[in-house]
UniProtKB/TrEMBL annotation:
Coiled coil: none annotated. InterPro entries: YkvP/CgeB_Glyco_trans-like. The keyword Transmembrane does not apply. Keywords: Transferase. The lineage of its organism: Bacteria, Bacillati, Actinomycetota, Actinomycetes, Nakamurellales. Residues 234-360 form the Spore protein YkvP/CgeB glycosyl transferase-like domain. This is Glycosyltransferase involved in cell wall bisynthesis.
Length: 385
């Protein structure tokens, strides 16, 4: 009896796995499930902020569409060659593939097209300060057209799945963001629990957007100073930059027990995070902040950190009772929670162990893609739609 052929999957698009490793998690999971996975990737070389700007105001940045066109020509050629060689069963379009999915539909006729729709362009624009109006309505149309072009729409939370238009809801599946193998490797060499005379090391890394709630973190750092907790008790590392960085620093004040780092290379970040005892998630009060579980929560848990983050339905669902939760935007609660962990090293060690165990069981690529893999055989192709 002949064994079934491994499903052939092409991961396609202008995604940037170094900056947005979600695609690595999906690829690791698909490979672990026995699929033959091939990449056709031409990174666009733009940050999320630049991509959002391109979506909001494409007429003001002609260089950005030009960069996209150059990548698309390469993707077209490589995709056509791959299709002639061996047409893939599935094409997975990577993160921020709102436009790439249309190219994939043209190149890979007859293949199942799956779109990793990790963010809604309209929601991201609103979260970053855009006012509701013509631009956000146009971005909502971009979202809808992208989802319509896909046979399978991959979301990261059930809250995001609920935003898929009803007529497309049958195509939606949830695959949590998860963490790639580099984070689990870092976790294997995670820092030991701090001794009584050693400061607890805390890390935040992110883009300092409203979703992150960075200003709340800054105010909490100020409150820690007011509680009498200094560098001998707690050491906070703040990594990244973005629109709220200056306000965050102002809120923290000059005497806060913190150091500020603009950037850490993506290859180095897992080890940097694993050298800390606590990782901060998100604390924003925006609508989007209530719908997501950020990369850092999955990654830092895999790296062996205790997680402190906002108490929202998706984060509570994913982390269960294995993390410390505070109300969104509540800097006093955040400072009090950190102070409690500093004062109770046994509790801190327990939270670290719980996070590592949860990550091992639920955050790997193989763990997060169950619903996606289950749907692949039954997804209709474009020819049968």
């Amino acid at each position: 009896m002949r064994e079934p052929r491994a499903r052939r999957i092409v991961v396609f698009g202008t995604y940037q796995a170094d900056a947005h490793p979600r695609v690595r998690v999906l690829m690791e999971g698909l490979r672990a499930a026995g699929n033959n996975v091939v990449e056709i990737n031409e990174p666009l070389g733009l940050s999320t902020a630049q991509r959002v700007s391109m979506l909001q105001k494409p007429w003001t940045a002609p260089v950005l569409p030009a960069k996209l066109l150059v990548r698309w020509v390469r993707l077209w050629r490589r995709g056509r060659a791959e299709r002639r060689r061996n047409r893939p069963d599935v094409v997975l379009v990577g993160y921020m593939g709102h436009f790439d999915v249309h190219l994939a539909r043209l190149v890979f006729r007859g293949s199942v097209i799956a779109l990793d729709h990790l963010i809604f362009a309209s929601g991201t624009a609103l979260d970053r300060g855009a006012r509701p109006g013509l631009v956000t309505r146009a971005l909502a149309l971009v979202d809808t057209l992208a989802m319509k072009a896909a046979d399978l729409i991959v979301l990261d939370t059930i809250e995001h799945r609920s935003r898929v238009p009803e007529r497309l809801a049958s195509r939606a599946v949830v695959a949590a963001v998860g963490a790639d193998s580099s984070w689990f490797g870092a976790g294997a060499a995670a820092a030991a629990d701090p001794g009584q005379g050693e400061p607890v090391r805390v890390i935040f890394y992110g883009l300092f957007t409203p979703l992150q709630g960075a200003v709340t973190i800054g105010r909490a750092l100020k409150a820690l100073d007011g509680m009498g907790l200094g560098p001998k008790d707690i050491s906070v590392t703040m990594v990244g930059s973005g629109q709220d960085l200056a306000e965050c620093k102002d809120a923290a004040g000059a005497d806060a027990p913190a150091r500020w780092i603009d950037w850490v290379a993506s290859d180095d970040l897992p080890a940097v995070v694993a050298a800390h005892h606590i990782a901060l998630g998100i604390f924003g009060t925006t609508a989007k902040a209530a719908q997501v579980v950020p990369n850092k929560v999955y990654q830092a848990a895999a790296a062996g950190c205790a997680i402190v983050t906002s108490d929202t339905p998706p984060q509570r669902r994913v982390l269960q009772d294995h993390a410390e939760f505070v109300p969104p935007g509540d800097h006093v609660a955040l400072a009090s929670t950190l102070a409690a962990l500093v004062g109770d090293r046994e509790r801190l060690g327990r939270r670290r162990r719980q996070a590592r165990e949860l990550a091992r069981d639920a955050f790997s690529g193989g763990a997060v893609i169950g619903e996606l893999v289950a749907r692949l055989p039954s997804v209709p192709t474009s020819e049968s739609r």
